[in-house]
Design a protein that fits this description.
The protein is α/β, with parallel strands linked by helices. The chain has a single domain, classed as Sugar-phosphate isomerase, RpiB/LacA/LacB (Ribose 5-phosphate Isomerase B, Chain: A, 3-Layer(aba) Sandwich). The chain is 45% helix and 16% strand. It has a 5-stranded parallel β-sheet, sandwiched between helices. α4 runs parallel beside α5. The chain is globular, with a radius of gyration of 14 Å. It starts with 5 loop residues before the first strand and ends with a helix. The structure holds D-ribose.
């Protein structure tokens, strides 16, 4: 499958079950899901998992990434430290659409202790089904990239 339909998933221990539910949901929609774990419920460290998923996106191996932890905040911060990553935490579908349409986000972060499964799947759908609008928004994303450079 082409990288344009490949999506990487990762989480810490707080979000294993929700991550697996999202993986099944996306696979049913035809996504080539690269679930890089972890699978063990043992306590683990979200920065490593955020960075590992982000590397898959930054390298071009995966078009998009979804990361999860208890709040979605810590793993989002780690993912955003990888060059080329624009990752936003969402707890509503409007933001999930907007981070694609206006910010060209290539990663979504979710808080498994914040939102329920139904809302999480709606957010995932909003994120994966929205395209970047470009235009004036591209100018602003370019400005983010300049800061990063
Ligand atoms: C783990 O207890 C928790 O701190 C982590 O999942 C996340 O919420 C951090 O941002």
């Amino acid at each position: 499958m082409t990288p344009s339909k490949r999506i990487v998933l990762s989480s810490d221990h707080a979000a294993i079950s929700l991550r697996q539910t999202i993986a099944d949901h996306l696979a049913k929609q035809g996504w080539d899901v690269v679930d890089i774990g972890p699978t063990s419920p043992e306590s683990t460290h979200y920065p490593k998992h955020g960075a590992d998923a982000a590397q898959r996106v930054a390298s071009g191996d995966c078009a998009l990434g979804i990361v999860l932890c208890g709040t979605g905040q810590g793993i989002m911060m780690a993912a955003n430290k990888v060059k080329g990553i624009r990752c936003g935490v969402c707890a509503d579908t409007f933001s999930a659409r907007m981070i694609r349409a206006h910010n060209n986000a290539n990663m979504l972060s979710l808080g498994a202790r914040v939102i329920g499964e139904g809302l999480a799947l709606d957010i995932v759908d909003a994120f994966t089904r929205t395209e970047f609008e470009g235009g004036r928004h591209a100018t602003r994303v370019d400005m983010i990239n300049e800061i990063e450079a």
